[in-house]
Amino acid sequence: HTPMYFLLSNLSFNDICLSTTTIPKMLVNIQTHNQSISYIGCITQICFVMVFVGLENFILAAMAYDRYVAICHPLRYTIVMNTHFCGLLIALSMFISIGNALLHSLMVLRLSFCKDLEIPHFFCELAKLIKITCSDTLINNIFIYFMASLLGGIPLLGIIFSYTQIVSSVLRIPSAGGKYKGFLTCGSHLSVVLLFYGTVVGVYITSEVTDSPRKTSVASMMYIVIPQMMNPLIYTLRK
């Protein structure tokens, strides 16, 4: 179970970091009744949010692969999911997430703003910031959609592939008890995946069907805060 707990510890640490990028500033704003943030502070917050959201996506994909190897290739589990390989997965995920966030942040820095503007959100979000700029944002929007499709789609396809193979293997187990144990092995992770992608889809749908800043902010809070609160509870209940 060492590889699974290694990945789980990284997921927990990432959840803490993601919450830390938004909640402390929000609490200070509530306490001081001052909702302003500097331009550099806004860019920094965008960068860190993108790093940890991207990293969460990759960690969930790595955990899905861990469950795939454990269920479909149990005799090779300790060979495939060794400490070096797990560390390499996390390091590569961090490198890609940081690089993606820095590229987006640098592309925002080339934009100009006519005056001090208000972002209708409880934290600085890339899409909201781009909407209030005076510059041409075509390149930024194309880059956002391209990278979101690439870095969001590949891990999601990996998760789908892993669970397709897992379900296929578990259904071939003759006994009902074996099937139950097989599905129980990946139940917690599947719950976390559905929670994460469910809130992401919820935010996207809300932003598309409504122009209300309040509703969009509430949906984004569900996406930023709720999964990080629920993940430890889900894995605790498994025990």
From TrEMBL:
The chain crosses the membrane at residues 37-65, 77-103, 142-163, 183-205, 217-237. Residues 1-235 form the G-protein coupled receptors family 1 profile domain. Signal peptide: none annotated. Its main location: membrane. The keyword Cell cycle does not apply. Keywords: Cell membrane, G-protein coupled receptor, Membrane, Olfaction, Receptor, Sensory transduction, Transducer, Transmembrane, Transmembrane helix. PANTHER family: OLFACTORY RECEPTOR. Putative odorant or sperm cell receptor. Belongs to the G-protein coupled receptor 1 family. This is Olfactory receptor.
